[in-house]
Amino acid sequence: MIRSHVLICGGTGCTSGGSVAIGDKLQQELNRLGLAEEIKIVRTGCFGLCALGPVMIVYPEGTFYSRVKIEDVTDIAEEHLLKGRIVERLVYKENEELDMSQVPALGETNFYKTQLRVALRNCGVIDPENIEEYIAMDGYQALGKVLTEMTPAQVIDVMKASGLRGRGGAGFPTGMKWQFAAANEADQKYVVCNADEGDPGAFMDRSILEGDPHAVLEAMAIAGYAIGASKGYIYVRAEYPIAVSRLQIAIDQAREYGLLGEKIFGTDFSFDCEIRLGAGAFVCGEETALLTSIEGNRGEPRNKPPFPANKGLFGKPTIINNVETLANIPQIFLKGADWFASMGTEDSKGTKVFALGGAINNTGLVEIPLGTTLRHIIYDIGGGIPNGRQFKAVQTGGPSGGCIPASMLDTPIDYANLTRIGAMMGSGGMIVTDDSTCMVDFARFFLDFTVDESCGKCTPCRIGTRRLLELLNKITEGNGTIEAKSSATTSRAIPSAHSARPRPTPCSPPSSISAMSMRHTLLKSAAPQAYVRNL
Ligand SMILES: Cc1cc2nc3c(=O)[nH]c(=O)nc-3n(C[C@H](O)[C@H](O)[C@H](O)COP(=O)(O)O)c2cc1C
Ligand code: SF4
Ligand code: FES
Q1: What are phi and psi of 464, to 5 degrees?
Q2: For 52-68, how does the pLDDT look when each residue is reduced to its tens digit (9 = 90+)?
Q3: CATH number for 205
Q4: Would strands 190-195 and 231-237 be described as parallel, antiparallel, or unpaired?
Q5: Ligand 2 atom closest to Cα of 498?
Q6: Are 489 and 513 in contact (CB under 8 A)?
Q7: For the CA atoms of 447, 452, 453, 458, what is the dihedral angle to 10 degrees?
């Protein structure tokens, strides 16, 4: 009989810190101590607190060990697991002053207590390579309910009532997208999962796939039923080997259990999924480029309309949804559209996952109800800025986003607010900078990225971003002129082929320019000539 479970994080962050070897060594120690029958090791996805990795939790006590090294394993096995004595030096304490009797339960720490885990609910909780653990957490129940109790039209109504908007960046209402695809008659339709995740600093989708791949498969099957599709593709970048391997295991297991394939749950509905590997081009995250890439062609965006819901993969009606969008869906059918719509703001329902990185203490993955302020995320959940430095700005929305300065930290995060203050929700990367960061250098980093990632199809992007980068290089090398600064800060108006907004490019747009504008605003009291010389 199992008396204790040891959950070891097998997310990419902890894996790169040696968590696989730590798990192997712990198993050897359990064997040596004769504990293998009573203590079970569970290798999970990301817990969220990646900055403290490799991490492990011992249940039923709920002891959270952080920064575990291979040399610590024998102590954990002999002291904690054999003798019941917690290894205090490894226990995570938010505040080093606390003694053991004051250490709060993990769920009560500042990092976790205000988070609401919907898309991440199983990450760090179950073994993603074991379908039975997903089923034990109500997995595939939503699919069963949808297939046996609801019509496709009812499924779409629930999605619309939930208010779920796409988490891949554009924030398009998911139910409406499904409705468009359902309305098109065709002999074949497709459901595509966008797991390209090319934004610098973003790792939300990777973590969901690594920690809970079945949630995405279940949602894709629900989407297939709603629109009348029997085939799905998951487009995931090849640089995500753990996610790819766990997804393939999940697909194989779901087929074995009859949850993918022919006549699912004994109904007439059949649906199957395949993985397609992307080569890591940022532009292939754009939906039309992604579909072109699946078709075996060079990944370049095309103009819309026609939208994929009308003419998508291989010319057939297709819905394409982001990983996090999909991960919310089984819960919506289990708990109801009203439950989902009760979270968030008027404009933005539910929760959002953010990848916190840069100058912040708690680098990691957080999920909060929409409407939470940036200040709460950065100072309470994120633990503030390291080394006693001051916050300068947070970059959100990937290369298409913007930099939000300290004066706007009390803005509640939702789609409308972020757009209003010149940033955007994007997919959820949040890169924090402190007062030692030069915002022009920061802007140059993003612009460099967009120059590298331009597919070359449109002149404003292929040539314009390069010219902008030259201007920023000039400024950062101390050779800036008033004209250079002025061109760089007004280049938002370069027309774009695919975007509704004036951006230098649709596919590799200008957080860099927003950062420039912000820097300009922050320093507007400085004499202009000194400004361009001294940046
Ligand atoms: C340049 C560019 C890159 C994009 N990259 C991604 C990406 O990596 N992942 C993603 O889900 N959406 C990405 N998108 C948005 C997709 O085009 C599309 O809107 C999204 O996959 C739709 O899913 P959703 O409605 O669930 O958000 C990108 C868009 C652009 C313009
Ligand atoms: S804007 Fe840039 S990345 Fe997008 S299609 Fe044009 S050249 Fe390619
Ligand atoms: S990868 Fe281990 S906590 Fe995030």
Answers
A1: -65, -45
A2: 999 999 999 999 999 99
A3: 3.40.50.11540
A4: parallel
A5: 1
A6: yes
A7: 90
Shared domain for 422 and 464, answered yes or no, is no
* Strand residue runs (E) in 229-326: 231-237, 272-278, 318-322
* Residue owning the nearest CA to atom 29 of ligand 1: 286
Task: Specify the pTM.
Answer: 0.92
> Which residues form the pocket of ligand 1, taking CB atoms under 6 Å from any ligand atom?
166-170, 172, 194, 196-198, 282-283, 285-287, 320-322, 325, 427, 507
What are the φ/ψ torsions at residue 193 (nearest 5 degrees)? -100, 125
User: 357 and 326 in one domain?
Assistant: no
Co-location of 56 and 170 in the same domain: no
Are residues 41 and 153 located together in one domain of the fold? no
Is there an atom of ligand 2 within 6 Å of 356 CB?
A: no
Q: pLDDT digits over 368-425, tens only?
A: 999 999 999 999 999 999 999 999 999 998 887 889 999 999 999 999 999 898 888 8
Please check whether residue 85 lies inside any domain of the structure: yes
If one counts every other C-beta atom within 10 angstroms of the C-beta of residue 160, the result is 16
My answer on whether omega of the bond before 306 falls inside 30° of 0, hence cis, is: yes
Tokens representing 111? 């990092």
- String of DSSP letters for 362-426: S-EEEEEETT-BHHIIIIIIS---GGGPPEEEEEESGGGSEEEEGGGTT-B-SHHHHHHTT---T
**Same domain, residue pair 194 and 298:** yes
